[in-house]
Each structure stands twice: as structure tokens, then as C-alpha cells.
Amino acid sequence: MRSEVGEFGAVVDAQGRRLHNLRVSLTSACNYACVYCVPDGKRLHAEKNALPLAKLLLAVGYLKQVNDLRTLRITGGEPLISPLFDDFMAALGQFEFEDVSLTSNGQLLSRKLLVLLAAGVRRINISLDSLDAWAFQRIARGGELTEVLEGIEQALAAGLQVKINMVPLRGYNHEQILPMLDYCLARGVELRFIELMRMGHLARDRQAFDRQFIGMREILARIAERYPFTPAAKAADATAQRFTIPERGSFGIIANESAPFCTGCTRARLSSTGWLHGCLSSSRSHYLGDVLELPRDEALVRIHELSRQALADKQAERFTGDVMIMKMIGG
What we know:
With 331 residues, this protein is an alpha/beta fold. The protein has eleven helices and twelve strands.
């Protein structure tokens, strides 16, 4: 799809940041109710005001036309439970993104693997916080560990590049840091430890956040008990600090608190209800739904302005958190 960036001028902020990466949430619904996402254990259900498929695709197309968007990540909630998933994936070829990836909890991965492969997806991130069935249920409050593990094995056998995301939580899965790393190294999978984020209820309850938080220094100390490692290079807009374990593989840490990466952030998030979010640390969002009703030329002008506003919402230096629930805007 042809870019209109030259026609309108580049969308760039005072720090030189642009929007290169778009994350699209297909639904805020989820078959999990993770302790770090929802405090009451209630699963989020599909929103009544979600954009229909045609409008969601139109929004993606407009955003790509006025920004230098290069990569697309499909998220949720849990994207694989969205009724739009199959058709959305089938339509992605028209946009000619350099890379299309997916973040999922993996419960339905076995059933949707052929859809992913047909859409040209070659890499996926699976959220998995424990290999212990009891701890898994205590954190996710839904799903079956065996289903996730089987989906991972099938994805690897199909040639997909798999990364696993783990949120270490004191009192829940802190003893799983090394077993998870062993599991990933044995399969050539890169494990990403994600520091607990001050989102939703954890932004309001600092004591709960502090009680559960495990930072990069402690994660590295635990890994050093078993493996030697060295820092690895990373891209300027990468979120993870990466490390190499000689002759074994690599792992990463997304250290929102310990090593903020806001200065190089190039991400924007489009919710399933049509709201554009430029920053997880800002409650500001920009509604695209009514813009999609305008004639194309008028819509592109408005999308350009809303993209500029979303970029301006970004933090200058570090993540500060927000009361928004992460599932509402995409992981």
C-alpha cells in the first residue's frame, strides 16, 4: 500500500521519534484473568462498540498511509478468540508490512496455526508465566498449561520463530525464572522477562506493586547462578535488553522500571474500538471511528493530525504507568 507521508509531511516529535510499529488489538476479551491485569479474577468480555472488520482494516490502512509504519503486531485481550481473527489475518497482505507478528496466550494456538501460516506470519510471542500447573492456574486464572505447551511445540515444528514472555512475580512464580529459561534454551526459544508494569489496579495500589515486583538486577542475579551471559546488541527502538549465553542461546529483559526505553519508542496502539494510543503512560487516546466515515482525502488529513497527537503523548524518558487496563489497548 502506497505511503502518503510525503504528501502530508513526516509525523515526528521534538525527540525525533516517529511511528514505525503498530499494535492492533482485535478484542479486549480474554480467556484468562491474570493477576497482574485484572484484580478481581473476572474475565473481560468482548466490547459492544468494537469496530467491524472493514472499519478496523480501513483504520490500519489509513494509519499506514500517513505514517512510516513498518511492522504490525496483532494483540488483544486474546486475539485468537476474536471472531474477526481469521478474516483479519487473511486481509493483511494488502498492507505490505515488512513484518507481521502476534502476541497470544497460546490456548488456541494449535487450532489457529494454519491461519497464521497462510497469512505469512513467521514469528509469535506467547505469554507463559510458569511451567508449574498450579502456579500457572494461580496467575492466569484460566486455560490449561498443557494446551499452551502443545501449541508451542506445534508452532516450532511448523518453523515459526517463537518467543516466550514471562512476568516474574514475587510470591507467584519467582522460583520459575531458571526452569523457564532452561525450557526455552532447550528449544531454541528466546525468553523475554517482562518487569511488572504499573497498569490498571497496580497503578492505584503501589504496595501491591512493590510486593510483587522483581527487577532486572534480581533476574540477572538468579540467572548468573547457573549461566554465564554477556550483553547483546539491540536496535535503537527495541524494548528488551538482550543477553547471550555462550553456546546455549539468548534471553531478554523488558525492564520498564529498571532500564526505561521511552526515548526510542516508535509504537502506537489501535484498540478494537477504534481508539489510537500513543503511550501506555498516558490516559489520552484519539478516536478514529468517526474519521473513518469521512471521504478518503479528509480522513487522511485527520489521521495525520491524530497521529501527531498520539506521538506527542509519549513520555520523554521513562514509563510512569496508568490506570488503564492493559487488555483494553493491546499487549
